[in-house]
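ZP: hey, is the calcium ion complex queued? I don't see it on the tracker
AM: it wasn't, my bad. submitting now with these inputs:
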Amino acid sequence: MKKFLWTLIIFLSINISSTAEPLTGGVTEIGRGNRVVDAKTNAPVSGAQIEIPQQGFRTYTDEGGNFTLNKIKIPDDTILSVQKEGYRPFSITINQNVASKPMVLGIQKSAALDVVIDNEMLHLGDDTFSQDSANAGDFKLKSIGPSYVKKFVMTANTLAYNNYLIIGSIIGIDTLTARTMRQNGMPNSYSSPPEVYFNGRKVAEIQLNGDNQKVKLPRALIRPDQVNEIVIRTGVNLFQKAYTDYDDIELMNLTVQTE
Ligand SMILES: [Ca+2]
């Protein structure tokens, strides 16, 4: 019987789309057959850095844009990132199921007005969390506290466009909505959602884990050609009254992009 493998094609603009592209040959080993391509031209991207921060795993694509994950074990959802000069930082939440099939990751060229706020993995919270929490099994990085603060300049040119904060990937959110969507196994509690502030004003609450979450930055709040500030504050466990139990979350790849 002919064996078909499903190729996952992931683009920044679309979340995840899979096509039934049959591959020939015995590409059955876990973590093999992966490629990074230019999202527009489909040309392979060589020398792209692939990282799974929770696993301390790092590799680079070869001349043909290929990379392997070396059969690493991924017990729970974790973030895989792709960095390449001239391209927007890319990330995707993967698990054993996703990683066991060949992945084709389409990355996008950076645009002139893009601002990379952060391309490191960030852990917000207090490092105390239930093993039932979303992605608890994968938390290894130490928390930087309940809030992330970053100052950055936005040029006056950005006022001519719609501006968005893009959160590349976020895992570990234990809101009621996340529980309803079965993103965690917490039977008896949930947390308030993480909040995003732009120049002191709350502009979003993040209810769900996932990739490429887009937060509009209201034009009226933008300080042109001056320092602007993004704050992301994690939620608190609404069922722990004895002390403040911050929701431990991880996020990666914060950029401001215009449309
Ligand atoms: Ca906690």
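AM: back. Residues 125-126, 128-129, 245-248 surround calcium ion (CB under 6 Å).
ZP: great, adding it to the tracker
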